[in-house]
What does this fold into?
Amino acid sequence: MGIIPMLSLVVFTIGLSIYLLLTPKGRFLLKYVVTNIKRQEWRFKYGKLNYLRSRFSKMITIAAIIMVAVIAGNTVSAQVTPPPLASLKSVSVPQPDNLGDFVKDKPAAIKLGKALFWDMQVGSDGMTSCATCHFHAGADSRSKNQINPGLLRINADGTANPDTIFDVGGLPNYQLKPEDFPFHKLSNPNDPTSLVSDRNDVSSSQGVFNSKFVDVTPGNAQDQVTNEPDPVFNVGGINVRRVEPRNTATVINAAFNFRNFWDGRAQNIFNGVNPFGLRDPNAAIVKASTPNQLEFVKVSLNNSSLASQAVGPPLSSFELSSNGRTFQEIGDKFGRTSLSLAKGKKLPRKLAKKLFPLRPLGKQIVHPQDSVLGQDSRYPRPGLRDRTYDQMIKDAFRSEWWKSNRLIQVDAQGQRTFIKNPDRSLETDEYTLIEYNFSLFFGLAIQLYESTLIANDTPFDRFLEGNTTALTPQQQLGKQLFEGKGCIGCHIGSELTAASVSSVNKDGRIKRAPFPPNSPEDNGFFNIGVRPVTDDPGLGGNDGLFGNGQGNPLSEARLAQLGNFQALLGENPPILNPPLSPTETVFAKGAFKAPGLRNVELTAPYFHNGGQATLEQVVDFYNRGGDFGVLPPLNLSADEKQQLVAFLKGLTDDRVRYEKAPFDHPQLFVPNGHPGGSTSVINDGTGQATDSLLEIPAVGRNGGGGTPNFLN
It folds into this structure.
């Protein structure tokens, strides 16, 4: 080797060493490279590093790798180094461009949405509301009967392989304890190899009992159902409430998300019917061009993933509904009573009469100083004064979506016909226009209410606004760690999530990962190694629209590979550099939406599996580089860990903590497990366990003492 090449190599090595050791970007990059080499993830076309034949070749090869990584790293830095953060107050809440085509009175729609969100009468059991799983800082702090054994588990080939064995507690109706966490236990939390135990259970939210829908009794909060034995959620053969297979995410600040649910299933486009947006070609509602003239129309409201999300749980057999219920039937029980009850005649099950409608929030006290519903409160009696859901819908929405003298008839095969008079047959269901379009009203009203639940007055936000004492010195050090150790890669922007509308509008719906091998990924969705991908495919699953667990990929990058992006999402896919290859690997398996972090102090347990109970455990997870992934370890000191935890607590909005407006709410009774334990429950006489109920008192705009945190 000549002197010039040797000198060049020396100069290069010295310069590279200075870069890697003395600059923050270099140190982070060096840590990333070393971690991946240790984990044997660097591969070459002709073999591994340790198979290279000469010592000099090894040095040249490693230097070349690092040089490529440096170049990539500088590109990464340009991609992930954000501009200076601004307070969340500076970010407008996304809204549909065409909202005025549907809503005529936004405050009235917000009032309707708040009532529907908190009303226990929405559930099939007349007890479960949307708020049942979102009453504490927009999330769920219950800890008894909150375990799902891992029903989303799949085989390596993607086929279903649900786990029905309860590892945590052994059986349903278990009372969780602090020592149960984390679910992935290590003897040394900084060492991912020091495994003590590993459990794939999920800490989530209990919903309804297993049952089959028969009919509604109009004007009655409880649906007619047939109880069915539950092979998983039972104690001694007595059914207990079923538990969702993913941890409950907060609804506060969810209005900023481009898509919702952990797996992004709730689409940005709301189709007025279900969570799947333009993916569902058959989704349509009915419009009255005149009261006598109806037509089926497809609707598309952008920036409406909250509406898409809202219409999912009311029909979920785990969350709010018995199997087989429709949105029209939910509307029916709120708006009409069959004439057969009054006259004793066999008439259609759904008839356009409103004899005994349910009173909105009829089981719950509404505080007289409620920031939205106070003027309609009947305090100290339950419910709203002089209000029906029928009238609330008419006050909020344009008349072409509810005003008609025609009925929509649906036969046993699903064929829909517009009719003037009921046919008095038990073979068909007949709905008024306001009932048929109930999913539209429900979704948009709840979205508009949830869009008021914006937590933007945290110490962090006040610090960004120029109040230099809003964060303590320890929290300011934690902020520097948060921004300098890689957290900012997933939790970017004022919303603190790459899954936000503003992030997607800026960087595109799909992009290339900023680290080698720069695979395509959905913007805002990441696999950080919480669990193996076979425990829960997350974004790697499908939308289920084909039936039998089949459908199109949830991953938009995969849709682009298949050439279905435009057809299913309504726009052309972003152009990637280099262009997307139909054969390259997409980062989707085990990927989940990055949540915003405000109020994270209040929303334990954490991650999509609820497997961490404290912020300290979360920081330990990131510090060791995750449990089942390739995150670079942070190597924080004990003091730095505490600084980071302190910063995360600086993201709490005290209006949320103390339930001040807009986070005030009506009274709520939530099922909180069942009397007894995991070996014995009390049969209520129908094969179901009796409930333990937890009262969440009504609070007005001035708030109260708040509700206890998880396991407190």
